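dumping this here so i dont lose it
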């Protein structure tokens, strides 16, 4: 009887292998994103993707949607003020820039060319923020980081805040660079009513022409230098003379656009020109040379 109970062979189950089979990584789907498509189909889906800490591929697809497809398919313009646009811009500034800008910035510097995949993502991200809403969001973030840096006691904490300041200052630098920003802000206004145009343009005048950008960048640069072992070169956005020279070139470039306005229509030029002359750098801004 005992012979009948003698085992022919003995096998042992590898418990680790069994656990490995069970603990297969499951990718958490983004709520509202249909199927396997990386690109959202509505602004709300785009917001969900950005909130869900997307990888670089999903980020690229979402930014492409916001810039290239949303205006035609959803009649949504991220540069036009709206509740959903404000939420998307806030996520871009608060979440996406801290995560991705250090990578996109270094890629841009190391590859000098603009045809790389990351170079495209960098341009798309900047395009999403190149509006008065985007500029306001950047400045609000800079203000919060400035306050946090001043209040930071631990060296590590202060270092992290300074790095974030540098990244957001670099984004601001890239958004403003060139001679066409004011013209771009003007052309991209939602032309619904004259009253709405005037209200939005007044905001552009205060932020760009009134020195809000200049003052915020200057304070951020001062804190960055205080935390550094050596004095760094001041970025042009924080330099009053260079900033005044920049705004003068932008106004000249923009003036060619508004000359085409129909006779008798509202002229936005006097308000911005008058405001920009109050920056206090008269006679110090040779426009021809930057």
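and the seq i came up w/
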């Amino acid at each position: 009887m005992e012979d009948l109970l003698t085992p022919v062979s003995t096998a042992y189950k590898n418990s680790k292998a069994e656990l490995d089979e069970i603990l297969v990584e499951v990718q958490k789907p983004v709520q509202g994103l249909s199927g396997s498509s990386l690109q959202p189909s509505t602004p709300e889906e785009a917001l969900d993707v950005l909130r869900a800490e997307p990888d670089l591929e999903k980020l690229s697809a979402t930014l492409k949607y916001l810039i290239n497809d949303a205006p035609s398919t959803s009649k949504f313009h991220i540069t036009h003020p709206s509740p959903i646009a404000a939420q998307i811009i806030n996520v871009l500034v608060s979440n996406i820039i801290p995560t991705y800008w250090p990578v996109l910035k270094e890629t841009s510097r190391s590859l000098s060319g603009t045809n790389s995949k990351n170079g495209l993502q960098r341009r798309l991200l900047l395009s999403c923020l190149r509006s008065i809403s985007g500029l306001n969001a950047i400045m609000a973030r800079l203000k919060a980081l400035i306050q946090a840096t001043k209040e930071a006691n631990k060296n590590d904490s202060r270092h992290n805040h300074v790095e974030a300041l540098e990244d957001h200052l670099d984004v601001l630098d890239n958004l403003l660079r060139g001679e066409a920003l004011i013209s771009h802000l003007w052309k991209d206004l939602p032309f619904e009513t004259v009253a709405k145009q005037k209200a939005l343009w007044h905001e552009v005048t205060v932020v760009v022409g009134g020195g809000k950008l200049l003052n915020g960048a200057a304070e951020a640069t001062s804190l960055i230098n205080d935390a550094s072992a050596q004095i760094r070169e001041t970025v042009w956005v924080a330099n009053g003379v260079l900033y005044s020279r920049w705004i003068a070139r932008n106004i000249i470039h923009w003036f060619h656009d508004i000359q085409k306005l129909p006779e008798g229509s509202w002229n936005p030029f006097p308000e911005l020109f008058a405001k920009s002359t109050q920056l206090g750098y008269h006679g110090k801004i040779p426009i021809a040379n930057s």
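The mean pLDDT is 81.
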